[in-house]
Amino acid sequence: MLSFLSLHWLDILTTILGLLYIWLEYRASIALWLVGIVMPILNVWLYWQHGLYGDAGMDVYYALAAIYGYVVWKFGRKRGQTAGQSMPITHMPRRLFIPTIVFFVVAWGVTYYVLVTFTDSNVPALDAFTNALSIVALWTLARKYVEQWLFWIAVDVVCTGLYIYKGIPFKAGLYGLYVIIAVAGYRKWKREAVVRS
């Protein structure tokens, strides 16, 4: 038991932080961003040990993006929002769909190229996919768009399989749970979304 814990302690700790993070995200609590700074820093270490270099690099981005997300949720405004009101949950404007898709495809390609050229990753396409889509998902979360949950569902499904394959069992279980919570989160945020004209 002790040898198992000593082998998987970082996986277990980041899994616990991940559960706290998704619960705070489901509740649309600004505290999610504080957990979102600490957890990715620990994940960099975890993923690097398992050869998931794209995910390790992605978590550097997550830590920085968590600072951005906190600032946007605290001080950001959407059209029609009154001063002093917290940023509302809304749907992503249709005008952003095509630029978002283009950004995703380019980010996927660039990340894939970096992984194939500069690392010994044996899962570069999937690692690059989850990284590129995570950038999009985190940006839409920072803007409190309902659709962020749909992006996370796709990321979480792929990551669950990837982490099983890479031998990170607790993280795989966490991402499997994330799929379920993301579906519930999507339904909840959809109900709570403010409709903009």
TrEMBL record:
InterPro entries: NMN_transpt_PnuC (IPR006419). One of its GO terms (cellular component) is plasma membrane. Coiled coil: none annotated. It holds the Pfam family NMN_transporter. It comes from the Bacteria. It is a multi-pass membrane protein. The chain crosses the membrane at residues 6-24, 31-48, 60-76, 96-115, 121-142, 149-166, 172-189. GO terms for molecular function: nicotinamide riboside transmembrane transporter activity. It is found in: Cell membrane. Keywords: Cell membrane, Membrane, Transmembrane, Transmembrane helix, Transport. Belongs to the nicotinamide ribonucleoside (NR) uptake permease (TC 4.B.1) family. NCBIfam families: NMN_trans_PnuC. Required for nicotinamide riboside transport across the inner membrane. This is Nicotinamide riboside transporter PnuC.
